[in-house]
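Structure ticket #2291
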Amino acid sequence: MRLRLAVPRLEARRVSRFDRRVQMRIAYRGNTHTVQLSTNVLDDMDRTNYESDAALAGAFDAHQAVILLRAAAGCCGD
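Resolution: structure written out below.
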């Protein structure tokens, strides 16, 4: 049970190229956090410029593990 709580879990996400952000809700160590990520980060990770929400969502899915770990570390002081 303890290890399960130490792994950030994605509860919901919304990708918007128009707003230029990914908004996600993560559960980590028994708490829920809302995190916003600029879509520029996804563009930079893949060294490209995504033209659609679907492409950005695919990029988020591809990098989800790293994004969740960094988001948990940033919002929870790890």
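Closing remark: The radius of gyration is 13 Å.
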